[in-house]
Amino acid sequence: MTFVDLGWIGFRRVLDPDQVAEIAADLDAVLADAEWTSIDCRFDGATDYVRSYMADARDFTRSLAERGEGLVYLIG
Question: What is the pTM of this model?
Answer without folding.
Answer: 0.75
